[in-house]
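Subject: sequence -> structure tokens, single chain

Hey, anyone have a minute? Need the predicted structure for the following. Not urgent.
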Amino acid sequence: TYILTTDGQLYAAGRNNTGQLGVGDSADKNTFTKVVRNTNGAKVVDVRAYGFGSGTYGVYITLDDGTMMAA
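Reply:
Had a minute. Here:
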């Protein structure tokens, strides 16, 4: 589960066995933890989750400067 704040910060919680939350480790999160990314001052404006049948999961992040990155 992800929360995007009005000031462009992204937080995640939930299963994280392969690091799919993007919080810097692979421990499951029972509380919301800030997603770790160097955005060079840009704010997160959109978040899109993805999953593949192979068990690969994660999220794409779009910044206000148009940059896209994966978490």
